[in-house]
Automatic annotation (TrEMBL):
Species of provenance: Acetobacterium wieringae
Gene3D superfamilies cross-referenced by the UniProt entry: Phosphotransferase system, mannose-type IIA component
One GO CC term, this protein: membrane
Keyword Amino-acid biosynthesis: no
SUPFAM superfamilies associated with the record: PTS system fructose IIA component-like (SSF53062)
Descriptive protein name: phosphoenolpyruvate--glycerone phosphotransferase
InterPro entries assigned to the protein according to its UniProt record, in alphabetical order: DhaM, DhaM_N, PTS_EIIA_man-typ, PTS_EIIA_man-typ_sf
Pfam families documented for this protein: EIIA-man
Lineage, opening ranks: Bacteria, Bacillati, Bacillota, Clostridia, Eubacteriales
All copies of domain PTS EIIA type-4, residue ranges: 1-127
Amino acid sequence: MVGIVVVSHSQKVAEGAVELARQMAPEARIAAAGGMEDGSIGTDVSKILAAIETVEEGDGVVILVDLGSAVMSSEMAMEMLSDSSQVKIIDAPIVEGTIFGSVEASIGSSFEEVVEVLAGAKAYKKF
């Protein structure tokens, strides 16, 4: 199953997105990597790396980020992996992307299919 990591400057935002997605796809492999180790605002490379390793099962991992250093920290975490070929940072909204990606991954979709669904989440219209 494709894993999903949510990277936000806020631990509460990352955990909230994961909590909501788990309501829709309880068996999905999702991890929150929000905030700094001490709970303050920011992004932490070691938390992101640990989250990737937690959800990685060999089918790939997608990373959803909020902004700025979340991208840079995620890229740094990917550089620390022995093989990051199946890890991708996705430009999609965190809440919708986490839900859409989790549901898609939970039905057994491939890495490429999950990435495609997440690409579409960016254009999702609520009304």
